[in-house]
Design the sequence.
């Protein structure tokens, strides 16, 4: 068991961890010992959060523990070390001939971190990554192992746990037979076409993303479709948007090499569902991110509200992404109880200007039921967020029951989740 006192920053470089110790256990027994004795502790995943959700006086990384990937073909599940990254897991699943239902925009993130923050991916019929969870193993602040499976009491409160309930050490996910996906990009979609045909556009593929800089038109629409035995019906345009003739990066000025292949070339689910490829710097690499998930019924109204702020957004924006997520029943999920539309912002690394702009964005979107993505930059406090989570009080009770000494609480949780509404 190794202690590391050099923690550095998160992936984006906008947050420096304040923890005095970083523990690297190699066994579950060591995790139990560390957690039971630490006055304050959190688990550090792939460092992809853009805020201090994962920080504490002491941190634990599970990267030194065995991946221990166990595929149960009969149950259609896979059990994994919670620190495993989705890109690494995908390679192991492909060797077993199975797949996950979805992936986030980039495969560089850890399973437990993505699940704990309801990180999602897209698709009208696709729940976020947490929706695939069938079981969770965690170590409580008493050093005890707590396991819960789908259908059992507490399960729907534990999955999107925000790191507040314990150190998640293993996650069991649903799998299905491996499949192929192709993706095509369409350019120059007009706002009238998007707003008048929003449902038709987002249902055009298994997963659909609209990239925009809130200008006169939308830059791109990425349509990812499952490959079937039937021949692909190619289209020259999508409601007036023209099919791209070359591979594209979501940020038009950037080289498309880090992106997953397009132009209708079929490939494994793991090589198409994410926007970016493992082994490359995802997105632009120098950025901040924010995202708000709203009830899908407010999609057009929310998009129009953001368009009204475009003059202030564009100077500090790299690109925005609009996508959809299917409803789930996980208490603290940003898609709890209702299908959602996500409005994502990849900002230039200008924190002061971004935070000032978020005041206006949240003033426009929170009244429409917007839920900020837990792992990204936002201003809204617990009082503003609580009304959008009907099971929040149950979650607070679960936190108090599984972590009675408050070892996993931190200032971020108090400010945005656990504080008085």
Sequence:
């Amino acid at each position: 068991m190794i202690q590391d006192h050099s923690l550095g920053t998160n992936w984006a470089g906008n947050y420096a961890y304040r923890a005095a110790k970083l523990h690297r256990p190699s066994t579950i027994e060591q995790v139990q010992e560390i957690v039971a004795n630490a006055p304050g502790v959190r688990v550090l995943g792939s460092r992809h959060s853009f805020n201090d959700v994962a920080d504490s006086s002491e941190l634990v990384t599970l990267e030194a523990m065995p991946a221990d990937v166990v595929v149960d073909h009969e149950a259609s599940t896979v059990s994994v070390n919670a620190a495993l990254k989705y890109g690494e897991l995908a390679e192991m699943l492909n060797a077993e001939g199975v797949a996950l239902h979805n992936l986030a925009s980039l495969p560089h993130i850890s399973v437990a971190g993505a699940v704990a923050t309801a990180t999602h991916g897209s698709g009208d019929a696709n729940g976020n990554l947490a929706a695939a969870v069938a079981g969770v193993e965690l170590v409580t602040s008493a050093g005890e192992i707590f396991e819960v499976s789908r259908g059992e009491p507490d399960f729907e409160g534990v999955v999107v746990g925000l790191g507040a309930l314990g150190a998640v050490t293993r996650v069991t996910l649903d799998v299905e037979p491996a499949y192929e996906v192709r993706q095509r990009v369409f350019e120059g979609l007009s706002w009238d076409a998007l707003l008048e045909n929003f449902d038709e556009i987002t249902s055009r593929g298994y997963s659909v993303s609209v990239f925009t800089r809130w200008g006169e038109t939308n830059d791109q629409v990425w349509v990812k479709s499952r490959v079937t035995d039937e021949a692909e019906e190619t289209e020259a345009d999508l409601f007036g948007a023209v099919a791209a003739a070359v591979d594209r990066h979501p940020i038009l000025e950037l080289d498309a090499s880090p992106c997953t292949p397009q132009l209708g070339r079929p490939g494994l689910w793991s090589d198409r569902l994410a926007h970016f490829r493992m082994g490359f710097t995802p997105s632009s690499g120098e950025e901040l991110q924010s995202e708000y998930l709203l009830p899908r019924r407010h999609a057009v109204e929310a998009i129009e509200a953001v368009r009204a702020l475009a003059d202030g957004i564009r100077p500090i924006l790299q690109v925005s992404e609009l996508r959809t997520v299917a409803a789930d029943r996980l208490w603290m999920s940003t898609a709890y109880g209702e299908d959602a539309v996500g409005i994502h912002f990849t900002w230039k690394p200008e924190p002061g200007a971004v935070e000032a702009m978020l005041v206006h964005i949240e003033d426009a979107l929170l009244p429409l039921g917007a839920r900020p993505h837990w792992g990204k930059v936002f201003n809204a406090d617990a009082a503003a967020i609580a009304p959008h989570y009907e099971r929040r009080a149950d979650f607070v009770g679960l936190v108090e029951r599984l972590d009675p000494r408050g070892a996993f609480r931190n200032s971020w949780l108090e400010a945005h989740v656990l504080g008085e509404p």
Q: What stands out?
A: The chain has a mean pLDDT of 93.
